[in-house]
Amino acid sequence: MTGLLAAEVRKLSTARTTWILTAIGAAFAGFGAGFFLFEEAFSGPFTGSDPQVAAAIDQVGGMSVIVLVVGVLSLTTEFRHATIGRTLQITPSRTRVLTAKLVVGAAYGVVYFVASLGVVAVLIGIAATGTDLELGAEVREALWHGPVGLALTAVFGVAVGALLRSQVVAITVSLVYVMLVETLVNQFAPQVARWLPFQALNALFLSDEAMGQMPEGMVSPLPPGTALGVFVAYVAAFSVAAVWLLRARDV
Q: pTM of the full predicted structure?
């Protein structure tokens, strides 16, 4: 299994798309954090408070769609370039192959969080010049919600890629669902939308500071613990379905 994991790490880390998407995600996370750190008209003057720092860190999780796409690509690329057959010749167990991709995908989610957090941390340091930072309970929650949520997002992406196989279809369906379907459901039925997978995921990245900037009634997030449980359930269901279908279908 160690060799299989190492091979999957090489595949993911040597793809230019992985690095490009990671850089884009980190840049957008920094851009989002800038609103909470430097735009006084948006969130008031930066005082280094625990909610403000947590809100800036949560912007890393706000770019979870990047991790989702990388997860989708990690498997659909093999089908697109017809390398999946060779992969399964070397490791005949389809369950082991998919498990390795799921594990490496989860690891990428954590790496992405750390890389983007580095960008946000630099911005926090600049904004906090001459100001003491308050690193309390909300910051601690943001620091574990982020990597856990993004690791699960990557696993979800790998599972979607295994279920749909076609790279174009998988990416298109994923983006349309996340950016359009859930948005529309949230607009017209927020009490239903809160139970959908990415609305549940987003609840992990909504600090009290961020919620305070939103119009009342715009979102109705689940409590973080419940939201995490809901998203884990979706990820587990999609992963099990992906393993079953990969074993059942011809390559």
A: 0.88
Burial of 129 (C-beta count, 10 Å sphere; 0-12/13-18/19+): exposed
* CA distance to 168, 180, 192, per residue, from 234 (Å): 22, 19, 15
Q: Tell me the per-residue pLDDT of 204-220, one tens digit each, with 9 for 90 and over.
A: 887 665 555 555 555 67
Task: Give the contacts of 76 (CB within 8 A, at least 6 positions apart).
Answer: 161, 164, 165, 166, 167, 170, 171
pLDDT digits (tens, 9 = 90+) for 19-64: 999 999 999 998 888 877 777 666 677 777 888 888 888 889 888 8
Q: Kindly state the tokens that stand for 202.
A: 């987003």
Question: How many angstroms from the chain centroid is the CA of residue 123?
Answer: 21
Q: Do 105 and 154 form a contact (C-beta atoms < 8 A)? A: yes
Distances (CA, A) of 56 to 35, 115, 193: 8, 14, 25
